[in-house]
Amino acid sequence: MKSDRLLSILLLLQTRGRVPAHELADRLEVSVRTIYRDIEALSASGVPVYAERGRHGGIELLAGFRTDVTGLTADESRALFILAAQGAHAALGLDAALGSALRKVMAALPAPHRPAAEVTSRRILVDATRWRSGPQQAVDLEVLQDAVFSDRRLKLRYRHSGEQEPRTYTVDPYGLVAKAGVWYLVADRRGAPRLFRADRVRSARLLDDPVRRRTGVELGDVWEVLRRQVEERPEDGIDVTIRIRRERLDMFQRMAAGQLTELPDDDGEGDWVTARLSYPVLRAVRQLLAFSDQVEVLDPPEARAELMRAVRSVTALYQGAGRGEG
Q1: pLDDT per position as a tens digit, 11-55
Q2: Where does residue 132 fall: left (phi above 0), alpha (psi -120 to 50 degrees), or beta otherwise?
Q3: 159 three-state secondary structure
Q4: Cα distance between residue 294 and residue 197, in whole Å
Q5: Which residues, in sequence order, are CB contacts of 169 under 8 Å at separation 6+?
Q6: Could you give the CA distance from residue 255 to residue 290 in angstroms, rounded to a whole number?
Q7: C-beta of residue 306 within 8 angstroms of C-beta of residue 283
Q8: What is residue 132's three-state secondary structure?
Q9: CB of 252 within 8 A of CB of 291?
Q10: Is the peptide bond before 301 cis (omega within 30 degrees of 0)?
C-alpha cells in the first residue's frame, strides 16, 4: 500500500539521513520514478523532504525533523534486533512485516542507541535449526494460524511417525510453537493436551464451532506439560560404553550429541578416548557402524552382539548380490 511505503520512506530517511533514490527503490521494490512521486506526496503533506542531485546526492529530511520515542535502554535496543529462529517469520508470512517493523523501531530509538542496535543486527545471528537435520518438508501453516487466531476448532488428517495412513482428529488449538526449526500445533483433544508436528498434517479444515480450551490455561502452560512429557518420558533404554579414535572425536561428538550421557574423558594422551551413550532401544546402536573401525563398543555384550548381527546381515546381502542371488 502507498501509505505503508510512504511511512517506510520517512522512517528510512530518519534512520539513515541522506539516501540515494535508487537505494530506496531497491529496498522498497519499486521504481525510482515511484520513489520521486512518493517524495512529492510526502512534501505535499508537510514533511520537509528534498532531493539533492549529483554524485553524492540523495533524498533527505530537513535537519532536526524527526519523531523520537524514549525510555528504551541500550540493552533493550540491542535485544530488539537479535532475530531468533531464522525462517520462522517466512513460514508465517511475516517476513515483510518484520522488516517494516524493525525500520519503525530503528527510527523510534533514541539517537545514542541506534548505532549499537544496528551493529547488533549485523553481528548476532540466531539459527535454531539443528545441524544435519535433513531436508525439511514444506509446511503450510495458513489454516493452523487461522484456527489459532480466530479461536475455532480444527479437523486434522494427521500421519503419526511409523504409520502409513493418517488419522482424523478434532482438536482445540492453543497455538503454534517453533522448536529447533520444527513447527508444532499445541492443542487439546477431548480435553487432554496433544502435540502435532505441522509437517505431518496432511489436511486441516476450520470448523464453525468455537474453540473449547480449558479455563485459565494458556499456550505456555500446555507446552510446558507436553515438553516435559517428551523429555522425561521413561525409556527401556540401553547404556553403552565405547572407545573412539582421538582424530574422529570432534565429528563423533557432533553426530552423536543426542546420545552422549557422559562427555569423553580426554586427557590428551593415547589414540583412544572413552565415552558413554544411551539409546532408547538396542537396535539403535547400529548408528555406531557409521564410524566403521574408528569406534569400538566395550560394554554391554548385547550391544556388541547387535553390531555383529548387523555386520553379518550386510555381508550376506552383498555376497548374495555379488553372486547374482536374490
Answers
A1: 788 777 888 888 888 888 888 889 888 888 888 888 888 888 777
A2: left
A3: coil
A4: 36
A5: 155, 156, 158, 189, 194, 196
A6: 10
A7: yes
A8: coil
A9: yes
A10: no
Sheet holding 182-189, edge to edge: 192-197, 182-189, 167-179, 152-158, 201-210
Collapsing DSSP states into helix, strand and coil, what is residue 174? strand
- CA 172/CA 17 separation, integer angstroms: 49
C-alpha grid cell for residue 3?
A: 501509505
Query: Which residue type sits at 21?
Result: A
Cell numbers of 65, please? 525533523
Quote the CA–CA distance of 255 and 133 in Å, as a whole number. 10
* DSSP for 251-305, written as a single string: HHHHHTTTTEEE-----S-SSEEEEEEEESSGGGGGGGGGGGGGEEEEE-HHHHH
Q: Burial level of 165, CB count in 10 A (0-12/13-18/19+)?
A: exposed
Extract the C-alpha cell encoding 277: 551413550
Q: pLDDT for 209-261, tens place per residue?
A: 999 999 888 888 899 988 888 777 655 678 899 999 888 888 888 788 778 87
